[in-house]
Amino acid sequence: MLNQASSGRPQILHAYKTYHPETQGGIPTAIAALCAACPAVDSTVLTCGRGGAEEVDGAWVVRARAYGQLFSLPLSPSWPFHFWHAAPQADIVVVHAPFPIADAAVALQFPEHVGLVVHWHSDIVSQRRLGALLAPFTKMLLDRADAIVVSNPSLVQSAALAGHREKLTIIPFGVDVASWGAPLDNEQTAKRALLRARFPRLIAAVGRLVPYKGFSTLIEAMHGVDAQLMIVGEGPQRPKLEQKILESGLSGRVVLCGKVPSAELRTILRSADIFALPSVLPSETFGIAQLEAMACGLPVVNTDLPTGVPWVARHHKEALTVPPGDAPALGMTLKRLLDEPALARELGEAGRLRARTVFSRAQFTQRVQNLYGRILVERGAFLPYAALPSALTEA
Q1: Of 253, 276, 272, nearest to 333 (Cα)?
Q2: I need a labelling partner for 116 at 20 to 30 A (CA). Which of 130, 137, 317, 346 fits?
Q3: How far apart are CA 167 and CA 158, in angstroms?
Q4: Are 169 and 149 within 8 A, CB to CB?
């Protein structure tokens, strides 16, 4: 099942509930970056979806068929069987949590000779009863893990990780700063000119259209802001947001763009004056979208969540931070940045510098690869250490 399992190269199996191109989002993007970063490793992604297998950007992607969702989890009875078949062929299995189906699969059956890394992206926030029910499986997953990766300091305090502090490693996500900040080509420049003519005071926001992203609050905040708003992303909340825009009389100023290609997204960001990340729940643990905006030189308005969001873009440094769910405060802050272009430029340039120096994709992938390489050596999967592919070893 693993891609080129007899190649003699390390075999890495990533396990998560969704993946490109069926869905976008921070975690699939991070997995894709890790798969692409090291061609000397064979990467397989086991996920849920329409069923079947295909190569996606150099990684072998296997999709167990899903029959809808329940509690935000795919209903995929075959996923554990795919996992139990594939895991023994891997050198390292990487579980991207939260994904309770994977927790249970590891707890019930996992090969002793295989390394296990857990990327703990978030606690279970919305489905707490489900999380409590599955807590024994999650504990068994974490007990078995060789290492646990978190993206920011706030996750170190997670109650679920309390008994596993010695396994924790903080590795922030990263983005391709050079690509996001590169000059626009002629076609993009022309599109930017059209956007600027149509939307002279433009606020951009990006994310799945789900409640915790806070787009309803952002739309409400636009009542008092003389500006236009483009929200890039798709999701189940779209009909409600469309209705809210219509009832609020904002149809001419607020646009739901749907899902767009990365090149078009870059054009939108480079056309905007401000980037807004209005998330209202701790389900938003990091906010990779604000990193992309920072790489484009945009000032950020984000929310004071008890997560990595205000750590990535810091108040009065790269961002202005407001209480989550506070539409009047959000509107006033957006208006301030629009009316104070010098402050906006200062925050935007600081954000570009922070993205380049702290949150580059190269730093993220290299640190994760170093961790995987250490586990391979400790488990004796690839010896001697010097024989490992250089991309998996520390300098």
Answers
A1: 276
A2: 130
A3: 13
A4: yes
Please report, rounded to a whole number, the percentage of residues in the chain having pLDDT higher than 90. 75
> Could you tell me the two tokens for 116?
């296990």
pLDDT classification of 391: cutoffs 50, 70, 90: very low
The chain-wide mean pLDDT, for the chain, equals 90
Token representation of residue 189: 């420049």
**Residue ranges of domains in the chain, CATH in brackets:** 11-174+360-392 (3.40.50.2000), 177-358 (3.40.50.2000)
pLDDT digits (tens, 9 = 90+) for 38-88: 777 899 999 999 999 999 888 899 999 999 887 778 899 999 999 999 999
Which tens digit of pLDDT belongs to each residue from 205-242? 999 999 999 999 999 999 989 999 999 999 999 999 99
Which two structure tokens, joined as six digits, stand for 257? 């763009």
In whole angstroms, give the CA distance from residue 372 to residue 92.
8
For the chain, strand residue ranges (E) read: 11-15, 42-49, 52-56, 59-65, 69-70, 73-74, 92-97, 115-120, 147-150, 168-170, 202-206, 228-232, 254-258, 274-276, 300-303, 319-322
Burial bucket for residue 160 (CB in 10 Å: 0-12, 13-18, 19+):
middle
Of 250, 201, 198, 261, the residue nearest 223 (C-alpha): 250
Among 96, 166, 102, 171, residue whose Cα is nearest residue 137: 102
- Interhelix angle 128-144/100-108, nearest 10 degrees: 40
